[in-house]
Amino acid sequence: MKVNLTNGADARGSYMLFIGKVDADFKSIVTYNENENYFSKKFTNEEIQKVYGDAVAQIKAHKNIATNTRPSKGPISGKLMLEQIPQPPICIDWYWTETTYDQYGNIIDYEESYLYTICYPNGGNPPGGGGGCMCAAPDPDPSCEMSMGKITSEEASQSVSETVGTESGGTRPAEYKWVFLKNAYGLWWFTSVEDGVHKKVGNEWRWESLKHRGILKDGIYVGTQVSCSIESTNPTVGTYAAGMQLTYQFNSSMICKGFPISADRSGTVGSPVWQIVQN
Length: 279
Hints:
It contains 2 helices and 14 strands, in the order ββαβββαβββββββββ. The chain is mainly beta. A hairpin with a 2-residue loop joins strand 8 and strand 9 (about 205-220). The longest helix has 17 residues, at about 45-60.
């Protein structure tokens, strides 16, 4: 994507816009590279995932950004770069901002994401005035804390889908998917799949059985190693409601500053409660 400043000039460097879907919501992230035409070259899927992961980590590492995860509910306009110029030494923090307005022009949502910092030593001039240089920003992860976040997990009990099959011989199959473990930054997640059987008693449906089928791994995990295994399952089946309890072992690792780090864990997590739908 091309970015223009408010004075009409092209912004230096290269920009890429990511639009991702999380459940039913769409969210955007803009990433930056100081080289011109950097993102116009061909990237592999793995390289794109790494660019995205680095952008997420950089945004979360910066301490002065306002985070807002609400989905936009109206047309988006007024996308531009904002500059903040503190006292000497002159440094400019660049942000990507998105402002959402309702049909009457009122601001209903505002979001900004940190991109990079330009510093001008020895009283240099800001962009457009000559002089100045692109200076490397401080290491955002000096103690590997942010890198650890890429492999850190947290338990969840989030329903993904419920699919009921066709009746045959007084029973019908059902499939239930739910996220039981996910990355703290939302980069990756593990989904469990359960097979259910409903039986018809008179004119109503009731639960007959619930069994664990397996797990799925999704998301972005380039540069990291994450795996999960199910140690045991414990279904609870009532007349009209059922649920699954999983005991899992999670293992993760990556290299940060030349040293291996890990965030292994084990635990037990329960699924949502699935009610029988009479139809």
